[in-house]
Each structure stands twice: as C-alpha cells, then as structure tokens.
Specification:
heterodimer, A: 481 residues, alpha/beta, six-stranded mixed β-sheet, 16 helices, B: alpha/beta, eight-stranded mixed β-sheet
Chain lengths: 481, 938
C-alpha cells in the first residue's frame, strides 16, 4: 500500500461524493515539494528505472533518479511496488463541451472556452483513468470550427482548468452532416478566398478611416493607399470572422484538419499547403484514412487516429476480407501518432492505456505504444516541452499505477497534476460505491438465493436514489404508459 | 475608382486562385510497365491504322503505346511478349457522361466553384466500372443547377496516383426545366450586429426557360466584371470568370430539343468552344445540331437491368427509344454515353444496341472510344491505340459489339487493373472451346460446336453455349477437331523407371505431385489421363491409380486413388495353378467383405431401431479373452533362483522370468529389480541351457551361465565370469503360466446403446473390398489362352466380378466369351500377332469380334506416342471411330471412370484435345491440349 507519511493536505474527499468534490480537491494549494519514492518509474522519454524517485517542486518535476536528495521539507510518498507514469493526454475531445458541434459550418470566431463545463462527469472519469490533460476541441462535423483549449481535469472554472488556450482551429475536408464533398470543399476554399479578398480590401479601408479621423482628403492612388494602410493595421483591426483565420495563417493557432476518409487526406494536404500552414498542421484521421499513408508520410506531420484501430476491407468482386491494424501502419511509416479513446463503453476503446496495450498486442513496440498516449499528443498540441513524459523541468503530471500501465488489472491509484495530489483511489466515492456493490455481490453469491435478491433490490434502489429523481419518475411513467 | 479597385482585386485574386486550383492537377504519374502484346485481332480505332489488324502487335513502353502493327512486325527483343491468340484488343472505353459524382447539395444557381473532382475517391478503384471496360470517365457536378459547377475527368489507374486526369475539365451548364427555379438563397449575417442588416431570402434565376440565357449571360457578365456592378465577394463568381476565360470547354447539358437548339444558337453568339450533352428527345433538332458542327454526347436512356416503365402519354418516354439515334447519324462528332440514372457499366452493350438505328458498327465503337476523347479534349492521351497514347487497352473475348463478348482483362497505363475472375490464360476459370468438329463419343459428332468448361468441369456442350463474363473463348476454326483427352490404359508415367514392387496396401497416387517434364511431354501429346501401375504387378493385388498428366498438384491430378486392382497370371509357374491362388486370395477378401457387410446390416438395424425409439437400455457388451502366447514348455515361467558358492558369503535369492521361443531363451530379473535392464539370453539344447548375461562388469567381460534341467521345473548350473568368478545356481519354477506373456484382451463387442462395432480395417484387404463390392474392376495381366479361360472361370463365373484383361495376347481364342461377358482388353504394346503364319492386328481383330479394346503405353513418357498407336491401328484396318473410342470412351468405361474422363459431356472433366484435323490423319497436328479446363503449356 502506498503510504502518505505526512498527513495529506486534502481532507475533503470523504465528505462529498460527487465530481464537485473531486474538483474541490484540486482547488487546494499544492504542497511546495513532493517526493515520490520507491516506485518503478516509466518516464517514456529516458531510461526506465526499476526503483526511483520523482521529485516535484512547485508543480514541476525537478529531479528523477535512483539517488535523488529529498529536501527535508518535501512530502514523501512511498510508492514501493507501484509504477510511476506520465499523466496521459487525451489529444482530441469534444466531451468537455455541451454539444460536440456548432450548426454554423464556418465558425472560426468561436472558442470552446464558452462551452467547457467543468462539472461534467467526463473530467472526473479522466482523472480516474489517469488522463491529466485534455485537448478540448470541436468535433468533426464542421467546415471550419472554433478555437480549441488544453485543460486539466481539475478546477471549478475554465480559467482554473486551463493549461493553454488558443491551441488550434478545427478544419474538415470530410463532408459535415448533410453536406457532400463538393459543398464541403467549395465552402472551405471559399472561406480562404474570402479572407484573401478581405485582406485585400482592409488596408485601403484602414487608410480611408485613418484620413477620415483627421478630416484629410485622400491624395494618393489606390496602390499607395493600400501600402500606407497596411502599415497602420493592428490585430484589433481584424474583424471577428477573419481574426482567427489570420492567426491560423500566422501560426498563432494550430490547424487540426479532419480527414475522415483516405480521399479527404489529399484535399487536406492541399489546403495546408495552399494556406502555408502545413508546418503547424495536425491531421485528425478516420478509419480508412490510413490508405493515404504515403501522402501523409511526406509531410512529417503528426496524426491523431480514430478510436477504431482495426479496419476490415471486403473485396467487392471476390468477397475476401483484409484486416489492417491501423496504428501499425503508422508506426511502420514512422509517422508520430496519438491514440484517442472512444466515446462509447467498449472497454477496448475507453482507456488510453488499454488502447496502447492493444497496440502492443498487434505488433507495435511497447515504447512506441506508450509514446502514442503521452509524448506524441503532447507534441501534437505544441506542449512537448511541458507535458507527456517524466523529465526534470516538465509539469508534474504523474499517474501512480498499481502495476504496469499496459497490464489489464492495473489500477490508477493516485494522480498528481501540477504537483497537486488530485486523485486517490481509496477516496474515490463513486468507485468506492461501485466496488462496494461488487463486494456485496461477491458476498451474496455465497449466501442463499433469498438474501441475494434482497441485496440486489437494495443496491438498485440506492443507485436510483443517486440519480435524478424526477427523471427517474418520468422514465417509470413512460414505461407504464 | 471603385471599378479600378474591384478590377485590381479580381485580377490579383484570380491569379492566386488559379495557382491554387491548378496545383493538384500536376500529380505525377509513375512510369508504367513495358511489354509487347501479340493478339488475334487488334482494333486501334485510330485513323492512322487499319480498322482491324489480324494477328497484331502492340508495343508498350513505360505505360504508353510505342508501336502498333500487324503480323509482319517483329516484337522488340528487349521486352517480354504476351501472347493472346484468341483475344480482340480495343482501346479502353471513354464514358463521356456519368452520374458517378452525384449532384452537389449547394443552393447557388450559378455555382461554378463546385468541383466534381472533389467527389472522386482515388482509393476506390471502382471495380465494377473497370470490369466493364471503362478506363476513362467524365465526372459531372450535377444536372440540377444552371451552372452546376466544373466537371472533371478521371482514369481508372492502378493506384491512387493519376486518378484525376483533369481536375477542372469544363464548365457545366444545364438548360431546361431541371435547372430552372433553384431554391432561394438565405444568408445569415455573422456575427449579427446593429450595423449589419439581416438579409431576406433572395430568389435566384432562372425562373423559367424564358430567362435562362438572360440569367446565364448576366452571371457571366457580372463575374467577368463586364456588367460594371460592384458586387460582394463570391467564390462562385471568381470560379465562373476563371472558367469562362480559360480554354476549357463549355459543357451544355439539356434533355429537351428546344434547349439544345437554344444551346446551338448560344454557342453561335460566343467564341467559346464546347459541346452538347443530350438524349433522344432532341431528335427534332438533330439536323440543326448536325449543321452546326457541334459535338454531341448522346445519352442513351435504355433500361437493361429491368424493363423501363409504361410509355403512356409522357413525351419524355420517347427517351427510352434508342432508335431515335438514327436522327443523329449526321452529327459528325457523336459520342455515346449513359443517361443519368443508368449504369455506366452497361455502356458497351447499350452502345452496341445503337446499331439498330442504322449507325454503323465502326461509328459505334468510335463513339465510346476516340470520339468522346476528342470531345473531352483528351484524344492525344486516350481513346485510341496509337503511338504516344496511354496503354489503356481492353482484352475482349470477341467482337467488341457482340452480345456475348466479355472484357477479360483491362490495362490502364500498361498496368493490368482488372482480370476476369480467375479466368484468362492462367487459373481455372471458364473457357469456351469452339471448333468445326467436336467428337463426343463413338458415332456422335457435333458440327460447328462449342464446349463450355467452368472450374475445370464441362458444363455445357452444344452448337452454341453460354458465355460467362470471365470465360476465355478459344475459337479453333472450322477445320479443327476436338476430342476428349486421350487415356493411356496402362502406363508408368512418373515412376521414372523405378521398377520396385508395391504392396497391395499402397496406391501410387501418393507419388503424384506437380508435373515435371515427362508429364508435360505426355500431356502436350494429347494424353490427359494415365492408368498408373507399377512395372511389376504382384499376384496378391496391386492398386492402379487414375491420374492426370497435368495440374497444379495431387488434388488436381489424381482422378481415382484406386481405380482397379491388378493381378498377374503370367510368368513362371503352371498357368493353371495361379487361378487357384487367386481364388484363395479372393476368398480371404470375401470373408473380410462379408464381415463388413454383416456389420453394416447390423448397424442399419440398430439405426432403424434407434429411429423408432425401440432401443433397449443395454450396456456395452465386453468380451474378455485371455490368451497365452506360449504353450507350456520346460523353460517358460517364473523361477525362484538361489545363488551360492564362489565369492558369495551366503546364498542370494532372486526371481527370474524366462521365456522360450524355439530354442532361444530370453529371461529377465524380476527380483531384485536391477538398476538397469539386464538382458539375459541363451539357448536350450536338449536339457542343457547356456547363455550370457549382459551386464556392465567394468570391462571384465560378459558373464555367462550353463545349466542342466535336472528334473521338471528344476535347473542347476553355474554362472560367472570365465575363469574369474563362478557361482552355483539352482532354480525352481514356481509358475508355468508364463505370467509375463499372458495377454488378457477385453474387446467391446457392442458400442454405446448396443450399437454394433465395426470390424477391424485391414489395409491389405481393403482394396480388394472395393473389387469384391464391384465398385472397381480387376485388371488381370494374362496372355495364355488357358490362363484366360481360368481367369474367366474364377473371376467372372465364380465371383461375378468386373474385370479387364491386360495384354491378353491369346484373347482371340475366347473372343466370343469376352464379348458376352463384357470383358475389355487392354491391348499389349506389341499389337501385331501371328496366328500360324498370318499376321493380324490384335485390336482390329478383337474389335471385329465385338470385344471392347483400349490402348496402353506400358512405359513412362513413352505414352506421348499413344495417339500414333491409334493411327497405326487405323492404318491396319481398325475403324477410326473404334480407334478413337479405344483411346477415350472405352478405357474410361472399363475402369468405371466414364463419368469423369473419356468423353465430352456435361459433368465430365474439362479434358480436351484440339487437333488441326481428324486425329488419325497423319497430317493433323495437336493444336492445344486442355486438362481440367486449363491449357497445357508445351
């Protein structure tokens, strides 16, 4: 068992049993210094240590090694028998938002900031699953979507959660719902052509406005007026529909281009090249996109895979089925890829470490699989220097597993985010409730049938009581009617 | 000022856009392969070449056609040559109109920015279209808006590269009611603010046919800046202006005559190049189109896959009548394409139907190859087989416009992008063989007949047979003579001269693998099956296997593992005593068979009972038998031994088990149990025993023992190392029952629920079982007339078994009996016999007496000359029909294989030999040999 030698700073856990409680834990001041000692350290970048110490000072990792001097005032956490792993990164999630997409097809002026709901159980689950950073981004049902944000799953307000704002814009070359590819591409091209037109007109307007302010008459030709106007333009002069597209071109915002099928990869590359944004583009791929791997390989840009890892292709004439394990293709092509957990309840898609294990099972070396859930997504969001591995200088996001992260029976026991002890499995009220049920069920199995049924009845009532009472009632009415 | 600005803006934008737009077009295509094709017929559809080149040659280098020529042109020595003597090669079809792109969901009536190319998935190779021979197709952005966008041209390349040939191929304009009344445009102001008004829904033009040209001209004027309006930025205006100023053709699509007439006059008013796309409804204005010289893509609205609807009063129903095409014969540039909603895969067949309107075949083929390429402006790349063009070729099974012709192979850029399912020259697909004469069996000929073979089996025989899409067609010509594959009724092919004998439990079929050179030699000589026998036949029965001379492996090549059981009655010994041995052998087999028959009968009864639910609850019966392997003898048993004397301080006791076998004694120590096996062997001579004890003595030698049976069950003697150690022993037998050698067997006599148990399988008698059950014949090597008589007595009269005589040199003497009992004779290799002083041909002689005959090679690859054995027989008077039967149907019948080999009939194996004339005419050569539906490569 992990033992906290000093009394933990956080005492609230037992009191409440909701996500809010978990969030509150984060709000506490982090201890200045924490030393995680005695555990096996898998830093992802750098050598693995059979037994090592990770020293955290003021939210950053300051030392890792077998022989680390532990400051006298550090809170020492004994991790003997445990495994220390970098906090995992969810590279692409809309689940922090109330709805995945905006109905407007071209909406670069939006920001997910306005829609992140810190109380969503999604964030609580992230914590429980060892995900310490989430890239919240509009989903793929769009032409040009809003600005994304990198958050940590703790905090009561978006500001508190934010790791980095203004990360990237979402673009898509795959048709959004109700669109066909001709429409999708025409609108995508139109957005940038219209931007060119706007930028063409802006200097002149700016110069005219500048003169108007001074009640001066225009005395120069259009070309000179444009030249003078161009010098006067500041960021504030760009209007809302265009500002973020300008920042996208400048590289202030990353471009995450969704290419949901192989045939959408070519147009995505074309857009990236035409707009000269390829060097800060990340490709968000669908299941069949791997067929265009050769084109992607040439760019050297990272990709984010879909949560379906295996593709089965049926030959139209012969009926033969060919199976492809998608991440393996990207590994072979030496394209850095990040895994995205699926939204559904399928076990194989729900946990990042489970997905990495599936990768290993399908022939990808362990190191590459581990990178796909840590350092690769960190680099994709432009935070490769701060996140994604256990290295001195990096943000102290550490997950303490009960065993190897790729082992199916390993639990996330503790999570440190920015050095804050953000999660403790022994004080996870929901999990405790769940485990209690399980323990009850096990105990009941030994009992006679009568007792079993009674216990089950109690349990389900408890569960119903925890839920929304009104909704429950309505459901029952509906079922009766 | 404003105009200047607008102009400057548009020009700058245009340049930028054009650069962006043209970017993706420059996809480099990989170099294609280089090779030469020699084909039966080449139809280049090029004005520089003859219409048909018989025995033509096409040289392809780096995926492009280098040369096209006739039989006189030699293939280049540096390239591989593909030979397709049965094939007709035409250019890949160009579909000038398709609905593959679908139509876009955009609202603008003048949506020039929509690109059909965006819909093309380069990773989907559209196998059904390729299989139909479409190698180039036009993609059309839609039929639903006045300017529906810009079309594209795609090719069915081998990979994703180069799939889009022209990303922006044309500006697509639709006229008529389909494009009229587009939906209103609703634009949201984003973000809404007090400065920006909210726009009401804006109606679009054209609302009717009356305004369509007005709307079009206005849109063009506005886009090109000619109207003088200062408009909001519109990506569609930019695209329309760009397209209008380019050299890309205008594609005007219309279904109604009046709109096509309008289009003709519209073209008259502008200097723009373009073409019309329309269907049969435009027949009324056909002369107008013809006079204008405008190219026309005629869209054929023919329902092939299901009958079209009711004709009714609808004027448009006329569109289903392809016959209206007659009106368009005068149109110089006429391409044929499928109407929207019709499958592009039907292009070839539908175009062929256009001949009904009087359009010559030549123009029809041009209308789906070269002319559409010209109209689309890609004729320097595709559409004909001429030097410099891309090697887009179709390998057809026959005339390109014949109904039953199929696309067998498709080349794009010289790459094979489609191969008819497992067919063609490799693989066991389907094959149609056509010849002037097809010999089905004795007296059964088919003049100008066809044979269809599918998956190695003949499925249809007749004057005309079906032509599955993937079938290869071999037209051997009117002089050709097709026979079933020849059968060697007794040969040793594949034994490579190995003359060792073979046990009766082994079939030579085990030796069969992939064919080697000797097999190939025999196969290409027309012998497709061999009754494979070892050189020497035993008298206890040898299995004869029926094998094919060609195939991919054992599964292909073995017809029957055990087709007959052979016995020999020739050779040394009294010819009259051998039948007695045969009888003994057959009786052993008979007993075995009866055992099985009894079991099967019991099993049937049991099953019946079980089905009726009358089974009684019985436990499995177990019969326990105790067998002693040896009779009581003076030695065998357990002996108590006592050793004394010599170096032993006190007597040692032990127990030994001994066994006597003849004079040999074998013993082992029971007690004390030695650490390692001690082998004691010896001999019994009278009452004296002596022997050795194999024991590790550390190099001091092997201990020996000598003793005497003093009285019953008592032996005394000495044992020790010679001259070193010696001890006395005395042994008393305590058990004569030879416990070590007593075997107690328990055998279940019935199974679960009283189910009878099968008798044991005897591998040596098993082949005989098939014979005794009359499933296979006995092949009996016999020459002497008395032996023949004895064989007939035993096998035919007594056991009533099917037999075939092998050799039967003196069979003449029993010809009548042979005929009556239906016993065939496999003639000896040496067919000429002498009776008294006259020579006669044994085959001819037996045939005259009505005895069934077959020829054998009795050699390995010597079987290659088997056909000439028949030729010789015919020269000596045998009828050609009988000789052919003796090589095909007769041996098949003798060995009970007539449902597999020896004749050309549905269900039989696809083994055919194509001769240039009658097989026994000296001048006839073997043209092709087909085994299991696959041509044998010489």
């Amino acid at each position: 068992m992990t033992q906290l030698r000093r009394p933990p700073i956080v005492h609230f856990l037992a009191a409440a049993c909701t996500a809010a409680a978990l969030a509150v834990t984060a709000a506490a001041e982090p201890p200045a210094k924490v030393a995680l000692t005695g555990g096996r350290v898998i830093p992802v970048v750098g050598e693995e240590l059979a037994t090592g110490t990770v020293l955290i000072e003021h939210g950053r990792i300051t030392a890792i090694g077998t022989d680390v001097d532990i400051p006298y005032d550090a809170m020492e956490v004994d991790c003997t028998g445990k495994v220390l792993f970098p906090g995992m990164i969810h590279p692409h999630s809309f689940e922090g938002l109330d709805v995945p997409n905006e109905t407007l097809p071209v909406a670069p002026f939006l920001d997910v900031y306005d829609a992140i709901d810190p109380s969503r159980s999604f964030f609580e689950n992230c914590l429980r699953d060892g995900v310490t950073t989430v890239h919240v981004m509009q989903a793929n049902n769009t032409v040009i979507g809003g600005v994304s944000r990198l958050v940590r799953p703790i905090g009561l307000a978006v500001e508190e959660m934010t790791v980095a704002g203004d990360v990237a814009l979402k673009l898509s070359t795959s048709p959004r719902g109700g669109y066909d590819r001709m429409q999708q591409m025409a609108e995508l091209r139109e957005a940038f052509a219209e931007l060119d037109d706007y930028l063409e007109r802006l200097p002149e307007q700016k110069y005219e406005a500048y003169l108007a302010e001074r009640d001066e008459e225009i005395t120069v030709g259009p070309e000179e007026a444009r030249r003078r106007g161009a010098q006067l333009i500041t960021d504030a002069d760009y209007d809302d529909p265009h500002r973020n597209l300008v920042r996208l071109r400048r590289g202030d915002l990353g471009a995450w281009i969704h290419a949901g099928a192989a045939m959408d990869v070519g147009p995505a590359l074309q857009i990236a090249r035409d707009q000269d944004i390829l060097d800060h583009t990340v490709f968000v791929l669908g299941t069949t996109s791997f067929k265009a791997i050769r084109e992607l390989q040439g760019t050297g840009r990272p990709v984010v895979l879909g949560s379906t890892l295996t593709y089965r292709d049926r030959d139209e004439l012969t009926g033969e089925i060919e199976e492809t394990f998608i991440p393996l293709e990207f590994y072979k092509a030496r394209i850095p890829f990040s895994l995205v957990p699926g939204g559904g309840s399928a076990l194989s898609e729900r946990y990042l470490n489970y997905m990495a294990a599936v990768c290993v099972r399908n022939g990808i070396p362990r190191q590459a699989a581990l990178e796909a859930i840590t350092i690769n997504p960190a680099r994709a969001v432009g935070m490769g220097d701060d996140l994604g591995s256990l290295e001195p200088g990096k943000i102290a996001n550490v997950v303490i597993f009960s065993g190897d992260p790729l082992s199916f029976d390993s639990w996330v026991e503790h999570v440190f985010i920015d050095g804050i002890h953000a999660y403790d499995r022994t004080k996870d009220p929901r999990l405790a409730e769940l485990m209690k049920l399980e323990a009850d069920a096990e105990a009941d199995d030994a009992d006679d049938d009568e007792g079993d049924m009674a216990a089950d009845g109690d349990a389900s009532e408890d569960a119903a009581g925890a839920g929304d009472g009104d909704g429950d009632g309505a459901d029952r009415d509906g079922a009766d009617g | 000022m404003r105009i200047v600005r607008a102009l400057a803006r548009t020009v700058a934008l245009g340049a930028g856009l054009a650069a962006g737009l043209l970017g993706p077009v420059a996809t480099a295509t990989a170099d294609g392969p280089s090779f030469a094709v020699r084909a039966g017929r080449i139809m280049p559809v090029s004005p520089d070449h003859p219409w048909v080149i018989e025995d033509g040659l096409i040289v392809v280098r780096d995926g492009r056609i280098e040369r096209v020529g006739g039989a006189d042109m030699a293939p280049p020595s540096d390239l591989p040559l593909v030979s397709m003597p049965d094939a007709t090669i035409v250019p890949g079809f160009v579909a000038a109109s398709t609905s593959v792109a679908g139509q876009h969901g955009g609202v603008p009536s003048m949506g020039a920015a929509y690109r059909a190319a965006d819909t093309l998935d380069p990773y989907d190779d559209d196998p059904t279209l390729v299989a139909a021979g479409i190698t180039t197709m036009h993609l059309n952005p839609g039929w639903h808006r006045m300017v529906s966008g810009q079309g594209a041209i795609a090719r069915m390349t081998a990979g994703p590269d180069g799939r889009i040939m022209r990303e922006l191929a044309d500006l697509t304009i639709n006229l008529g009611p389909g494009a009229a009344n587009p939906p209103d445009v609703v634009e949201f102001t984003i973000p809404p603010s007090p400065d920006q008004e909210i726009n009401p829904a804006r109606p679009q033009r054209p609302a009717s046919r009356m305004t369509q040209f007005l709307a079009l001209k206005h849109a063009i004027a506005r886009a090109t800046g000619a109207s003088g309006e200062d408009t909001e930025f519109s990506v569609h205006d930019v695209a329309l202006r760009d397209a209008w100023r380019s050299t890309r053709p205008l594609r005007i699509q219309a279904q109604d005559a009046v709109d096509l007439a309008g289009a003709v006059s519209f073209f008259g008013q502008t200097d723009r190049r373009g073409y019309l796309v329309g269907g049969a409804d435009a027949a009324d204005v056909a002369p107008l189109i013809a006079d204008s010289g405008m190219p026309l893509v005629f869209t054929m609205d023919v329902a092939l896959r299901a009958p079209g609807g009711d004709v009714g009063e609808d004027r448009n129903a006329r569109g289903r009548m392809i016959d209206d095409l007659a009106h368009f014969r005068r149109v110089e540039h006429l391409a044929l394409a499928m109407a929207p909603g019709r499958s592009v895969a039907d292009l070839r067949l539908t175009a062929a139907m256009a001949q009904r309107s009087g359009l010559p075949a030549r123009r029809v083929l041009e209308a789906i190859t070269r002319v559409p390429a010209e109209i689309l402006g890609i004729d320097d790349e595709v559409g004909s087989l001429a030097p410099g063009r891309r090697a887009d070729m179709l390998v057809l099974t026959g005339d390109p416009l014949a109904t039953s012709t199929h696309v067998q192979r498709v080349y794009v850029d010289g790459h094979v992008v489609h191969r008819a399912a497992a067919g063609g020259d490799a693989g066991s697909g389907a094959m149609v063989v056509r010849a002037g004469t097809v010999w089905l069996g004795p007296g059964e000929w088919l003049r100008d007949g066809e044979v269809l073979i599918e998956d190695g089996v003949i499925v249809e025989v007749g004057r005309r047979v079906g032509r599955p899409p993937h079938a290869r067609v071999v037209d051997a010509g009117p002089d050709a003579f097709v026979t079933p594959g020849l059968i060697d009724a007794h040969g040793h092919l594949g034994l490579r001269g190995d003359r060792s004998g073979v046990g009766s439990n082994i079939s030579l079929a085990r030796l069969i693998g992939a064919p080697d050179r000797p097999e190939a030699r025999v196969a290409s000589a027309g012998v497709t099956s061999v009754m494979l026998a070892p050189y020497a036949l035993g008298s206890s029965g040898t299995q004869i296997a029926a094998i094919k001379t060609d195939g991919h492996g054992r599964a292909d090549r073995v017809v029957e593992t055990t087709a007959a059981i052979a016995f020999t009655v020739s050779g040394a010994g009294d010819p009259r005593s051998t039948p007695a041995q045969l009888r003994q052998r057959l009786n052993a087999g008979k007993q075995y068979v009866e055992q099985w028959a009894e079991y099967e009968k019991k099993l049937e009864e049991w099953k019946k009972k079980r089905a009726e639910g009358k089974l009684e609850e019985t436990k499995a019966e177990v019969e326990v038998t105790t067998e002693e392997t040896a009779e009581v003898d003076p030695i065998t048993g357990t002996w108590d031994a006592e050793l004394s004397g010599g170096p032993l301080p006190e007597p040692q006791r032990g127990r030994v088990a001994m066994k006597l076998d003849g004079e040999a004694i074998e013993a082992r120590l029971l007690d004390p149990v030695p650490p390692t096996e001690v082998r004691i062997t010896g001999t019994l001579k009278g009452k004296e025993i002596s022997g050795t004890i194999e024991l590790d003595t550390g190099g001091m030698g092997t201990p020996t023992f000598q003793g005497t049976i003093v009285e019953e069950d008592l032996i005394r003697g000495t044992a020790g190392l010679e001259g070193m150690v010696e001890v006395n022993f005395e042994m008393r037998r305590t058990d004569k029952a030879a416990v070590e050698f007593k075997v107690t067997r328990s055998r279940r006599t019935t199974g679960k629920g009283g189910r009878p148990l099968p008798p044991e399988v005897n591998e040596r008698l098993e082949p005989l079982r098939a014979l005794l059950e009359k499933r296979i014949p006995a092949l009996i090597e016999v020459s002497d007339r008395r032996a023949i008589e004895a064989v007939l007595d035993v096998f035919v009269k007594e056991f009533e078994l099917p037999i075939v005589l092998l050799g039967g040199q003196e069979a003449r003497a029993h010809a009548d009996r042979l005929r009556e009992s239906g016993v065939g004779v496999v003639l000896p290799p040496q067919v000429l016999r002498r009776d008294d002083l006259t020579w006669y041909h044994q085959g001819h002689d037996l045939d005259r007496h009505g005895v069934s005959i077959a020829f054998q090679s009795a050699t390995g690859d010597g079987a290659a000359t088997l056909r000439d054995v028949g030729t010789f027989a015919v020269a000596r008077g045998l009828s050609p029909e009988a000789a052919l039967a003796a090589l095909t149907t007769e041996p098949a019948r003798m060995f009970g294989l007539e449902d597999r080999i020896g004749s050309i009939a549905p269900g039989c194996d696809g083994d055919l030999v194509i001769f240039t004339g009658h097989p026994f005419e000296a001048a006839s050569a073997i043209e092709r040999v087909i085994i299991n539906g696959e041509e044998v490569r010489p």
